[in-house]
Automatic annotation (TrEMBL):
Keywords: ATP-binding, Isomerase, Lyase, Metal-binding, Multifunctional enzyme, NAD, NADP, Nucleotide-binding, Potassium. Its EC number is 4.2.1.136. (6S)-NADPHX binds at A251, G301, H351, D427. AMP binds at K397, G398, A399, T400, T401, G426. It comes from Pedococcus aerophilus. This is ADP-dependent (S)-NAD(P)H-hydrate dehydratase. Coiled coil: none annotated. The lineage of its organism: Bacteria, Bacillati, Actinomycetota, Actinomycetes, Micrococcales.
Amino acid sequence: MLRAWSADAVRSAEAALMATLDDEGELMARAAWGLARVCRARLEETGGSRVVVLAGPGNNGADALYAAVHLADEGAECVALQGPWPLAIGDSSSWQEAGVRIVAADGDWRAVLTGADLVLDGVLGIGGRPGLPDEAVAWVDALPPDAYVVAVDLPSGQDPAGEVAHEDAVFADETVTFGVPKPVHVLPATESAVGRLTVVDIGIELEGDPEVERLDFADVPGLWPVPTASDDKYSRGVLGVVAGGESYTGAPVLCCTAAVGAGLGMLRYVGTPAPTALVRASVPEAVIGDGRVQAWVVGPGLDTTSRAAGSKAQLDIARAALASDLPALVDAGGLDLVTGRRDAPTLLTPHAGELARLLNRLGGADSADVTRQQVQASPLAHARRAARLTGATVLLKGATTLVVPPEGTVRSQNDAPPWLATAGAGDVLAGVCGALLAAGLSPLDAGSLGALVHGVAADRANPGGPVRALALAHAIPGTVAHLLTR
Ligand SMILES: NC(=O)C1=CN([C@@H]2O[C@H](COP(=O)(O)OP(=O)(O)OC[C@H]3O[C@@H](n4cnc5c(N)ncnc54)[C@H](O)[C@@H]3O)[C@@H](O)[C@H]2O)[C@@H](O)CC1
Ligand SMILES: Nc1ncnc2c1ncn2[C@@H]1O[C@H](COP(=O)(O)OP(=O)(O)O)[C@@H](O)[C@H]1O
Ligand SMILES: [K+]
């Protein structure tokens, strides 16, 4: 499991360690040495030798400059761009003596930058506010496209807390962070700017709950509900799926195919005539109609406004499922039936547009209208608000999937290729996570583990190429086996 801690927690851990060290510069020395080792390796891989440092005003800039001193000692040509600010440590003459030429804001920095093989972004670190000083915006605009950009600790300008996306910021090829990952490295608003993430050990130890967790492959065997000889179909979990209608007939097929493929004890399907016929034909394992279950999936392809035959009876069962004390996953059309808090374990699985709509409906007349764009610009805050309003865990879908409980550490999964952005993929996710809820997992575990398996299945269904939702659903059983037996 990857764990990311807030800037404040990291600073406290650094202060605690520093108090035990004789030299107050020791941690920065460790950070700079580790950073220099990574840069050295990348220069060797790419055959480059010209390093340009973007030197900010704080310790992040100092880290980059110290790393450049090591690289200069080893023969690289190192130049640092300084803005109209003093450097945190030393001045231009002391750095020049140490082997790093400093080019001031009024110097010919463009020519220097054009020749860079490797750019070390040390403008801002965990002390940064989202956005960049104007001079650094100009540097970033002028970055040569073929230079390898290494961000020091985090891509400058990105929000260290990973809460908000900002357009004036660095997008790195690699980020070298110190001690532990931070939220910026794993949350959806900022993760795409991080590139490859490398963590340099500087000896700090973090205690207590992290801000963000990310499950990895090694977590799957410990969490996945593997049956034993004493199990039967009921003890493994029965899932009820209320999905589809006369206009959306495919969603229940995808959801039910994925749910049985994830290893359910049994599945009950509740639908109107057309999708029921399709589920009968394509998922012969499904038992049709209402009955006793351990958890519900309510909503894939569900049209809550339909007047077609069978719709009223189906909606009555959907409402009864939501009013029950059983765990429930609520997706797509089912989200329109959420009226407030539910006491039983609940996982809501909106995409950004559905989350905006849910917040507008539940937020009350006084709250400002939320748009899909606002959700995408600050996904964590919006998911958290929905989790607090409903008491449910909110799984917000996207390239990075967030799973946000009403309180405490959030999970963030990034396991899927962009090919997964295809209609019906969400119905498959609902089936997988629903199966895990029926087996007794918490909404947090069911959502994050389901998102991991779903993302890996997208890749395994057709490595490196397009994937359709039905192929994704069919790839679930093999993916689970692969992750359990690797
Ligand atoms: N605390 C420690 O012991 C260690 C810290 N390290 C480094 O220190 C960094 C943190 O250093 P600092 O606390 O000096 O903070 P930063 O280097 O992130 O920069 C903070 C400075 O930039 C200014 N600033 C912030 N946001 C701005 C914006 N958007 N536009 C313009 N100016 C802005 C602030 O006013 C402040 O002067 C870490 O990211 C890491 O690189 C490492 O050396 C490891 C050890
Ligand atoms: N760019 C992307 N990269 C990887 N996965 C993505 C990307 N965009 C969306 N996804 C995933 O694809 C799925 C889409 O679900 P959803 O929007 O509900 O589609 P549908 O309602 O058509 O089934 C979600 O699991 C989401 O996390
Ligand atoms: K940086």
